[in-house]
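User: Can you help me understand a structure? I only have the sequence.
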Amino acid sequence: MYFIGIDGGSAYSRLVAADENDTVIGRHTGGTSNFKIRSKDTIADNLRRLVSEFFRLTDSKIEDCGGICVGCSCIQTAEDVESMIEILSKIGFERNIHAVHDAEIILAAETKGEEGAIVVAGTDTTGYAVDKHQNRYRCGGWGKLDGGGSTVWIGNAAVKHALMCADGRREQSPLATKVFERFKVESAEKLSQIITHPDFNTHRIGELATVVRQTSQAGDETAKQIEQSAANELALVASALIKRAKIESPKIVAGGAVLVSNENILKAFTSLIAERESDVTVIPAKGKAELGAVYIAKTN
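Assistant: Let's start by predicting it. Here is the structure, written out as C-alpha cells:
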C-alpha cells in the first residue's frame, strides 16, 4: 500500500508517493491544480495526466493507493473541498480522499502532526494552526479585502506611495520612481488607468514586493516602513492563531514568498512574535509540501 500527496500550485503541481514506511516510491510534476484560475475540467485533465504518468513510471496501481491528499490555495471553503474530492473521485480514487488548503500541507511537512501554526504570505496571507487535539484553526485569507502582509498588500502600499508622491502629498522617493518605471508610465493618471482597468492582473501588483525589497536594501526609508508594517500584519495572524489554538511553546512555520524571500520581513516578524509571545520558535518552511500531503493522507 502507498499514499499520494500533491502540492497543487498555480503554475504546476508536484506529486510524491510513499509507502507505509515513508519510503518514497515515485515523484512526478504536472499542470496546475488551481480551479480558481482554470476550469475544473482542465484541472481534472491535469490531475488525471499527473497520476497516470506516476502509475506508468512506477508500475503502481490505483487500487493499491491507501489515500490521497491534495493541498492547494484554491481550497478555502467546504464547497471547494467537495469540488476537489469530486475531481479526484472521477479520476478513480475511491477511499481516504483529502483536499486542504496548501498551508496545511506545508505545516504538516514541518510538524508531522505536532501542535503548531503556520503563516503563509504569498499573493494572499493565510494562517493555520493545529492544537494538541488535532483541531484546526484558520486566520486570514478571506479575499481581496484581507491579505495583510501579502505580496499584493505590499505592492498596493508601494503604488499608494507612488501616487501620493506624484500628486505632491509626499516627497519623491526611490521607491516611487521604481514603481513608475516598473509600469513604464510617468504620471499618476496613467498609473491609475493601468491598475484600475478591468483586465488588470493583480499579480502584477504583487510583483512590486520584489521592488520594495530591493529598494529597502538600497536604503529607501519608505520601503523599510512598508516591510515593517507587513511584518506587523503577519505577526497579528500568528498571535491570533496561538491564542485561539492555545498552543504552548508554539512552533510557528513561516512560509510563502514574503517570509521566505524577504529577510528583513522575516527578521521583523520573528522579533515581533518574540515580544508578544513566550517560548516561540519561528521556523522558515523548508520541507517539501507534497510530503506533508502524504502525511495527511496516511494519518487521517
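Now, to help you interpret it: Residues 13 and 159 are 32 Å apart (CA to CA). The first strand starts at residue 2 and ends at 8. Let me know which part you'd like to focus on.
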